[in-house]
Amino acid sequence: MSLTGKNALVTGGSRGIGRAVCIRLATMGVHVFINYVSNPKAAQETQKIITDAGGSADLLAFNVADAVQAQNAIKGLIKEAGSLDILVNNAGITRDGLMARMKEDDWDAVLDTNLKGSFICAKAAARSMMKKRWGRIVNISSVIGFAGNAGQVNYASAKAGMQGLTKSMAREFASRNITVNAVAPGYILTDMTRDLPEEIQEKIKAEIPLASLGSPDDVAGAVAYLVGDDSAYITGQTIHVNGGMYM
Questions:
Q1: What angle do CA 89, 96, 161 make, to 5 degrees?
Q2: Distance (Å, rounded) from C-alpha 132 to C-alpha 180?
Protein backbone atom coordinates (compact mmCIF):
# COMPACT_ATOMS: atom_id res chain seq x y z
CA MET A 1 0.00 0.00 0.00
CA SER A 2 1.48 3.34 -1.03
CA LEU A 3 0.70 6.76 0.39
CA THR A 4 3.39 8.53 -1.59
CA GLY A 5 3.00 12.28 -1.44
CA LYS A 6 1.17 12.30 1.90
CA ASN A 7 2.54 14.10 4.96
CA ALA A 8 2.13 12.72 8.48
CA LEU A 9 2.73 14.05 11.97
CA VAL A 10 3.35 11.50 14.71
CA THR A 11 3.36 13.04 18.17
CA GLY A 12 5.73 11.40 20.61
CA GLY A 13 7.41 9.82 17.61
CA SER A 14 10.95 9.44 18.90
CA ARG A 15 10.70 6.13 20.77
CA GLY A 16 8.63 3.00 21.34
CA ILE A 17 5.26 2.88 19.62
CA GLY A 18 5.75 6.32 18.10
CA ARG A 19 9.03 5.31 16.50
CA ALA A 20 7.51 2.14 15.05
CA VAL A 21 4.62 4.13 13.59
CA CYS A 22 7.00 6.66 12.02
CA ILE A 23 9.05 3.91 10.42
CA ARG A 24 6.00 2.02 9.14
CA LEU A 25 4.45 5.14 7.58
CA ALA A 26 7.75 6.03 5.92
CA THR A 27 7.85 2.60 4.24
CA MET A 28 4.47 3.47 2.72
CA GLY A 29 5.90 6.55 1.02
CA VAL A 30 4.72 9.04 3.63
CA HIS A 31 6.91 12.00 4.56
CA VAL A 32 6.94 11.83 8.35
CA PHE A 33 7.29 14.65 10.84
CA ILE A 34 8.65 13.20 14.08
CA ASN A 35 7.45 15.14 17.09
CA TYR A 36 9.40 15.12 20.34
CA VAL A 37 9.81 17.31 23.42
CA SER A 38 12.89 16.49 25.47
CA ASN A 39 14.90 13.81 23.70
CA PRO A 40 16.33 15.10 20.41
CA LYS A 41 18.85 12.24 20.26
CA ALA A 42 16.10 9.61 20.16
CA ALA A 43 14.21 11.60 17.53
CA GLN A 44 17.36 11.86 15.42
CA GLU A 45 17.87 8.10 15.72
CA THR A 46 14.34 7.54 14.43
CA GLN A 47 14.96 9.93 11.56
CA LYS A 48 18.21 8.15 10.66
CA ILE A 49 16.50 4.74 10.60
CA ILE A 50 13.97 6.16 8.16
CA THR A 51 16.40 7.96 5.88
CA ASP A 52 18.88 5.05 5.85
CA ALA A 53 16.03 2.90 4.53
CA GLY A 54 15.29 5.41 1.77
CA GLY A 55 12.40 7.20 3.47
CA SER A 56 12.02 10.85 4.33
CA ALA A 57 11.43 12.49 7.70
CA ASP A 58 11.81 15.78 9.53
CA LEU A 59 11.94 16.56 13.23
CA LEU A 60 9.39 18.83 14.89
CA ALA A 61 9.88 19.77 18.54
CA PHE A 62 6.90 21.01 20.53
CA ASN A 63 4.86 20.16 23.61
CA VAL A 64 1.41 18.91 22.61
CA ALA A 65 -0.02 20.19 25.90
CA ASP A 66 1.00 23.76 25.05
CA ALA A 67 -1.70 25.07 22.71
CA VAL A 68 0.37 27.97 21.38
CA GLN A 69 3.43 25.80 20.73
CA ALA A 70 1.44 23.04 19.09
CA GLN A 71 -0.69 25.31 16.91
CA ASN A 72 2.30 27.32 15.73
CA ALA A 73 4.32 24.18 14.99
CA ILE A 74 1.53 22.57 12.98
CA LYS A 75 0.81 25.81 11.15
CA GLY A 76 4.50 25.97 10.21
CA LEU A 77 4.48 22.33 9.11
CA ILE A 78 1.54 22.93 6.79
CA LYS A 79 3.15 26.04 5.36
CA GLU A 80 6.41 24.16 4.71
CA ALA A 81 4.98 20.87 3.45
CA GLY A 82 1.84 22.17 1.77
CA SER A 83 -0.51 19.92 3.72
CA LEU A 84 -0.90 17.66 6.72
CA ASP A 85 -2.75 14.53 5.64
CA ILE A 86 -2.22 12.12 8.52
CA LEU A 87 -2.09 12.78 12.26
CA VAL A 88 -1.22 10.11 14.81
CA ASN A 89 -1.85 11.32 18.36
CA ASN A 90 0.61 9.13 20.23
CA ALA A 91 2.25 11.48 22.76
CA GLY A 92 1.53 10.48 26.33
CA ILE A 93 2.89 10.53 29.85
CA THR A 94 2.19 8.75 33.13
CA ARG A 95 2.13 10.08 36.68
CA ASP A 96 1.02 6.97 38.53
CA GLY A 97 -0.24 6.88 42.10
CA LEU A 98 -3.21 5.78 44.15
CA MET A 99 -6.13 8.19 43.80
CA ALA A 100 -6.28 8.96 47.53
CA ARG A 101 -2.76 10.37 47.37
CA MET A 102 -2.70 11.70 43.81
CA LYS A 103 -1.74 15.35 43.47
CA GLU A 104 -3.91 17.56 41.30
CA ASP A 105 -0.79 18.51 39.35
CA ASP A 106 -0.30 14.85 38.40
CA TRP A 107 -3.92 14.60 37.29
CA ASP A 108 -3.64 17.78 35.25
CA ALA A 109 -0.33 16.88 33.63
CA VAL A 110 -1.61 13.53 32.33
CA LEU A 111 -4.97 14.88 31.13
CA ASP A 112 -3.29 17.88 29.49
CA THR A 113 -0.81 15.79 27.53
CA ASN A 114 -2.75 12.62 26.78
CA LEU A 115 -6.22 14.02 26.10
CA LYS A 116 -6.09 17.78 25.68
CA GLY A 117 -2.94 17.46 23.57
CA SER A 118 -4.78 15.18 21.15
CA PHE A 119 -7.62 17.69 20.89
CA ILE A 120 -5.21 20.59 20.27
CA CYS A 121 -3.27 18.77 17.55
CA ALA A 122 -6.37 17.38 15.84
CA LYS A 123 -8.02 20.80 15.77
CA ALA A 124 -4.94 22.36 14.16
CA ALA A 125 -4.43 19.51 11.69
CA ALA A 126 -8.08 19.32 10.63
CA ARG A 127 -7.96 22.70 8.93
CA SER A 128 -5.57 21.40 6.29
CA MET A 129 -7.47 18.12 5.93
CA MET A 130 -10.81 19.85 5.46
CA LYS A 131 -9.42 22.03 2.67
CA LYS A 132 -8.16 18.93 0.82
CA ARG A 133 -11.24 16.92 1.73
CA TRP A 134 -9.04 14.01 2.78
CA GLY A 135 -7.48 13.13 6.09
CA ARG A 136 -6.70 10.37 8.55
CA ILE A 137 -6.51 10.87 12.31
CA VAL A 138 -5.52 7.98 14.58
CA ASN A 139 -5.57 8.36 18.35
CA ILE A 140 -3.44 5.98 20.41
CA SER A 141 -5.59 4.98 23.37
CA SER A 142 -4.90 2.10 25.77
CA VAL A 143 -6.42 -1.03 27.20
CA ILE A 144 -6.27 0.83 30.53
CA GLY A 145 -8.88 3.26 29.22
CA PHE A 146 -11.31 0.34 28.89
CA ALA A 147 -10.40 -1.93 31.80
CA GLY A 148 -9.12 0.62 34.32
CA ASN A 149 -6.12 0.05 36.56
CA ALA A 150 -5.37 0.74 40.19
CA GLY A 151 -2.84 3.56 40.52
CA GLN A 152 -3.63 5.01 37.11
CA VAL A 153 -6.89 6.88 37.54
CA ASN A 154 -5.50 9.88 35.64
CA TYR A 155 -4.10 7.81 32.77
CA ALA A 156 -7.23 5.65 32.53
CA SER A 157 -9.45 8.72 32.47
CA ALA A 158 -7.40 10.37 29.73
CA LYS A 159 -7.35 7.25 27.57
CA ALA A 160 -11.06 6.61 28.11
CA GLY A 161 -11.70 10.22 27.14
CA MET A 162 -9.97 9.58 23.82
CA GLN A 163 -12.84 7.28 22.87
CA GLY A 164 -15.35 10.10 23.14
CA LEU A 165 -12.96 12.40 21.31
CA THR A 166 -12.51 9.85 18.53
CA LYS A 167 -16.22 9.17 18.03
CA SER A 168 -17.24 12.82 18.14
CA MET A 169 -14.53 13.93 15.72
CA ALA A 170 -15.43 11.05 13.41
CA ARG A 171 -19.01 12.36 13.20
CA GLU A 172 -17.95 15.97 12.70
CA PHE A 173 -15.34 15.33 10.00
CA ALA A 174 -16.95 12.50 8.02
CA SER A 175 -18.54 14.86 5.49
CA ARG A 176 -15.06 16.09 4.57
CA ASN A 177 -13.73 12.56 3.92
CA ILE A 178 -11.68 12.60 7.11
CA THR A 179 -11.71 9.40 9.13
CA VAL A 180 -10.95 9.34 12.84
CA ASN A 181 -10.17 6.07 14.61
CA ALA A 182 -8.28 4.81 17.64
CA VAL A 183 -5.86 2.02 18.43
CA ALA A 184 -5.84 0.69 22.00
CA PRO A 185 -2.62 -1.21 22.78
CA GLY A 186 -2.33 -3.64 25.64
CA TYR A 187 1.04 -4.42 27.22
CA ILE A 188 3.64 -3.60 24.58
CA LEU A 189 7.35 -4.34 24.86
CA THR A 190 8.87 -0.87 25.14
CA ASP A 191 11.66 0.64 27.24
CA MET A 192 9.24 0.90 30.17
CA THR A 193 7.99 -2.70 30.15
CA ARG A 194 11.41 -4.09 29.22
CA ASP A 195 12.75 -2.83 32.57
CA LEU A 196 10.10 -4.64 34.59
CA PRO A 197 11.39 -7.57 36.68
CA GLU A 198 11.01 -10.93 34.95
CA GLU A 199 8.49 -12.16 37.51
CA ILE A 200 6.26 -9.15 36.82
CA GLN A 201 6.50 -9.74 33.08
CA GLU A 202 5.53 -13.37 33.55
CA LYS A 203 2.56 -12.36 35.69
CA ILE A 204 1.40 -9.98 32.95
CA LYS A 205 1.80 -12.67 30.28
CA ALA A 206 -0.32 -15.04 32.35
CA GLU A 207 -3.24 -12.61 31.98
CA ILE A 208 -2.92 -12.49 28.19
CA PRO A 209 -4.53 -15.28 26.12
CA LEU A 210 -1.74 -15.07 23.52
CA ALA A 211 0.75 -15.37 26.42
CA SER A 212 3.17 -12.68 25.27
CA LEU A 213 3.70 -8.96 25.26
CA GLY A 214 3.01 -7.15 22.02
CA SER A 215 5.60 -5.28 19.99
CA PRO A 216 5.48 -1.66 18.81
CA ASP A 217 5.28 -3.06 15.27
CA ASP A 218 1.97 -4.72 16.15
CA VAL A 219 0.53 -1.31 16.96
CA ALA A 220 2.17 0.31 13.94
CA GLY A 221 0.51 -2.28 11.70
CA ALA A 222 -2.93 -1.31 12.99
CA VAL A 223 -2.16 2.38 12.44
CA ALA A 224 -0.94 1.66 8.91
CA TYR A 225 -4.21 -0.09 8.13
CA LEU A 226 -6.32 2.78 9.47
CA VAL A 227 -4.54 5.43 7.40
CA GLY A 228 -4.61 3.42 4.16
CA ASP A 229 -7.20 3.03 1.43
CA ASP A 230 -8.38 -0.37 2.68
CA SER A 231 -9.97 1.31 5.71
CA ALA A 232 -11.62 4.20 3.86
CA TYR A 233 -15.09 3.14 5.08
CA ILE A 234 -14.05 2.79 8.72
CA THR A 235 -14.43 5.71 11.13
CA GLY A 236 -15.18 6.19 14.81
CA GLN A 237 -13.80 2.74 15.66
CA THR A 238 -11.15 1.32 17.97
CA ILE A 239 -8.79 -1.53 17.10
CA HIS A 240 -7.68 -3.38 20.23
CA VAL A 241 -4.10 -4.66 20.03
CA ASN A 242 -3.79 -6.51 23.31
CA GLY A 243 -3.34 -10.24 22.71
CA GLY A 244 -6.85 -10.88 23.93
CA MET A 245 -6.42 -9.58 27.50
CA TYR A 246 -9.47 -7.35 27.05
CA MET A 247 -12.34 -8.38 24.78
A1: 40
A2: 16
| DSSP-assigned states of every residue in 17-35 | HHHHHHHHHHHTT-EEEEE
For the chain, give percent helix, strand, coil, nearest 5: 50, 15, 30
Q: Under a CB-based contact definition with an 8 Å cutoff, are residues 3 and 232 in contact? A: no
Taking the C-alpha atoms of residue 151 and residue 247, their distance in angstroms, rounded to an integer, is 22
CA–CA separation, 222 and 214 (whole Å): 12
The whole-number average pLDDT for the span 224-237 is 97
The mean per-residue pLDDT over the stretch 66-95 comes to 97
Catalytic site residue 155? yes
Q: What is the pTM of this model?
A: 0.97
CA dihedral for 219, 47, 26, 80, sign (positive or negative):
positive
> For residue range 110-129, what is the model confidence (pLDDT) as tens digits?
999 999 999 999 999 999 99
Residues 155, 187, 225, 233: which is the catalytic one? 155
Percent of the chain with pLDDT over 70: 99
Averaged pLDDT for residues 94-121: 97
Distance CA 219, CA 130 (A): 27
List, for residues 158-194, the tens digit of each pLDDT value: 999 999 999 999 999 999 999 999 999 999 998 777 8
